């Protein structure tokens, strides 16, 4: 084991994150990544502000990672040489529970996560446990993708995981995406490219709603008192066949049930604070054949699929990163995310 120092943004609890010199040790059972860029997820901003039950400070946040390997890494698909740019699956499975044995690693009974339960990407270096390597959770980045864009492959993989939960989707159906942030716009691109669905984006931030229009949304509505009627008019009274809740605003939960068509599917992609409750009418679900499901994180397969979609030009990430910060500006990066400035915020100078 070797020991050294690095600069890191250490999270000590709500509203307390300090950029400091931190000890860094490396063992042969881990891979080390030199960070090039780490995006700020809405989850990171919420943890910074309020903490989280699975985050025990002090810890380094950040899980949307792009960096370079410091040493050669043996993977199931061959050897990644030192200096290879990679993205990383942040889930760390136990590899022994039922879910791991069935390759549902994101549902592991003993799940740990980079940037939550162990140190993450808001630092000069990040250690990648052997479990992540074994399941194919380190994926090389092609040359046609810059570091900042590559950080969005992990959330894109999460969106693909959400779509995989929906099963068969009606041809020429309507999808309503509640949330105009980066996750909502990734869902928009996937709905158009993979399913050719008529797509509605429902949001609140003018710049983001304009971006939704530019990215091909068939309709963009402002979330408010008249939005139900807007969706009804667009769908000729039928409602949306798929509703994606891509916002942590609890008002979106009941709203989703009001715009859902018969035989529709509602995916709760976003997470919510523990104080929020959601109690849909079971008879409404029964008689209208409505399915409500959740989706969480991603898998090695969805991360690899995300990489191929972007590398082949099917999904465009070039306009998704709008704000860039240094590690010293980490609190500004959190605030920009929290206040919905632009789209994705990325830390790219360490």
CATH architectural type of the largest domain: Alpha-Beta Complex
Name of the CATH first level of the largest domain: Alpha Beta
The dominant shape is globular
Portion in helices: 25-40%
Which structural class should the secondary elements be placed in? alpha/beta
Strand content: 25-35%
CATH topology of the largest domain: Quinone Oxidoreductase, Chain A, domain 1
Overall domain count: 2
Poorly predicted runs:
none
pLDDT average, as an integer? 96
**Global Rg:** 20 Å
Compute the number of strand runs.
20
Fourth CATH level, the homologous superfamily of the largest domain:
Medium-chain alcohol dehydrogenases, catalytic domain
State the end-to-end CA separation. Answer: 24 Å
Major sheet attributes = 7 strands, mixed
Count every helix, treating DSSP H or I runs of 4 or more residues as helices: 12
Written description of the protein model:
The chain is an alpha/beta fold and 350 residues long. The protein folds into two domains: 2-156 and 298-349, Medium-chain alcohol dehydrogenases, catalytic domain (Quinone Oxidoreductase, Chain A, domain 1), CATH 3.90.180.10; 166-294, NAD(P)-binding Rossmann-like Domain (Rossmann fold, 3-Layer(aba) Sandwich). 29% of the residues lie in helices and 31% in strands. The chain has twelve helices and 20 strands. The strands form five sheets. Strands 3, 5, 8, 11, 12, 19 and 20 form a seven-stranded mixed beta sheet that branches. It has a six-stranded parallel beta sheet with strand order 15-14-13-16-17-18, with helices on both faces. The two termini are 24 Å apart. 45% of the residues are buried. The mean pLDDT is 96.
């Amino acid at each position: 084991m070797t020991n050294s120092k690095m600069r890191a943004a250490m999270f000590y609890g709500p509203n307390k994150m300090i950029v400091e010199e931190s000890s860094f040790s490396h063992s042969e059972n881990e891979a080390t990544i030199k960070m090039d860029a780490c995006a700020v997820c809405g989850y990171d901003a919420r943890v910074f502000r309020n903490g989280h039950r699975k985050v025990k400070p002090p810890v380094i946040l950040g899980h949307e990672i792009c960096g370079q390997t410091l040493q050669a890494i043996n993977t199931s698909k061959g050897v990644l040489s030192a200096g290879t740019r990679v993205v990383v699956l942040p889930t760390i499975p136990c590899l022994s529970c039922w879910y791991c044995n069935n390759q549902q690693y994101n549902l592991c009974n003993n799940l740990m996560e980079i940037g939550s339960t162990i140190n993450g990407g808001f630092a000069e270096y990040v250690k990648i446990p052997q479990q992540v390597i074994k399941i194919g959770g380190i994926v090389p980045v092609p040359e046609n993708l810059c570091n900042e864009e590559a950080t969005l492959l992990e959330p894109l993989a999460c969106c693909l995981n959400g779509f995989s939960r929906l099963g068969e989707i009606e041809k020429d159906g309507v999808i309503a995406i509640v949330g105009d942030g980066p996750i909502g716009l990734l869902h928009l691109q996937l709905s158009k490219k993979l399913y050719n669905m008529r797509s509605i984006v429902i949001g609140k931030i003018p710049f983001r709603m304009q971006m939704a229009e530019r990215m091909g949304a068939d309709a963009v509505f402002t979330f408010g008192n008249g939005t139900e009627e807007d969706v009804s008019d667009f769908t000729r009274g039928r409602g949306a066949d798929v509703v994606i809740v891509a916002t942590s605003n609890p008002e979106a939960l009941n709203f989703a049930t009001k715009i859902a068509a018969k035989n529709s599917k509602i995916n709760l992609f976003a997470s919510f604070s523990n104080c929020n409750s959601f109690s849909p009418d079971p008879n409404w679900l029964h008689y209208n054949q409505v399915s409500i499901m959740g989706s969480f994180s991603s898998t090695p397969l969805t991360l690899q699929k995300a990489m191929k979609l972007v590398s082949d030009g099917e999904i465009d990430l070039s306009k998704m990163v709008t704000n860039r910060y240094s590690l010293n500006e980490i609190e500004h990066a959190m605030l920009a995310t929290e206040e919905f400035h632009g789209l994705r915020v990325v830390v790219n100078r360490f």
